[in-house]
Amino acid sequence: MAGAIKQVFGTAQTVFNSADDIASTAFSAASTEFDNTSDGSYPYAPLALVMAEFPDWGAAPTDLSTVDLYMVRSEVDGTDDDTTTPAATDTEGAEYCGSFVLNNDDELQRKTIVISLIGVTKCKFYVKNNSGQNMNNDGGTNFIMKVTPFTYELTA
Questions:
Q1: Residue 106 φ/ψ, nearest 5 degrees
Q2: 25 to each of 13, 38, 46, 72, 79, how far by Cα in Å?
Q3: Distance (Å, whole) CA 140 – CA 87
Q4: Residue 37 pLDDT > 70
Q5: Which residues are bridge partners to 54 per DSSP?
Q6: In what order do the strands lie in the sheet with 95-101?
Q7: Which of 152, 75, 62, 139 is nearest to 103 (CA)?
Q8: Strand partners, 6
Q9: Of 12, 2, 66, 59, which Cα lies nearest the Cα of 35?
């Protein structure tokens, strides 16, 4: 009998839980470091499930606008990080990971994307607000992002 392939998930890590506002066209501050080696059973998970809750907005975001996800790898050679990190509206050396597509609703939006983590052991994430509106992360509506690594396993 042929085996089946199933997804095996690691432990979710919260990388953003921020009350800091993010202006339109600007980058966020760095996230908490994501550690892709914390689950011993599959320390180099090839993909991650990223879930983000976007808070209240200054006004409704432009329909089909985006909040873009970038990363900077940490401890690339065991000691040093990739350089350079995003500054203000400049991507610098950060790697593009994907985009959260937004609705034109002035309300909490929860979005999920799948990104590649092939060869990534640790990294910090940044988001760029391309919504056309300020992300108002206050009044109990923090910007939250969790990363859950996963891999595939062949079952008997």
A1: -85, 70
A2: 26, 33, 30, 19, 32
A3: 27
A4: yes
A5: 109
A6: 34-35, 122-130, 66-74, 95-101
A7: 62
A8: 153
A9: 12
**């991507």: which residue's tokens?**
91
As a whole number of angstroms, the distance between CA 102 and CA 28 comes to 17
Lowest mean pLDDT among 9-13, 46-50, 61-65: 46-50
CA distance 132 to 60: 9
What's the CA gap between 27 and 124, in Å, rounded?
Answer: 13
* Of 82, 69, 85, the residue nearest 122 (C-alpha): 82
Length of the chain: 156
- What's the pTM? 0.89
What type of residue is 92?
E
Q: Which two tokens stand for residue 43?
A: 């320390």
Distances (CA, A) of 54 to 2, 48, 57, 114, 139: 43, 19, 8, 17, 13
pLDDT, tens digit (0-9, with 9 covering 90-100), for 103-152: 998 888 889 999 988 888 889 999 999 999 998 877 678 889 999 888 88
Rounded Cα distance between 123 and 9, Å, is 19
From the list 101, 21, 17, 113, the residue with the least C-alpha distance to 61 is 101
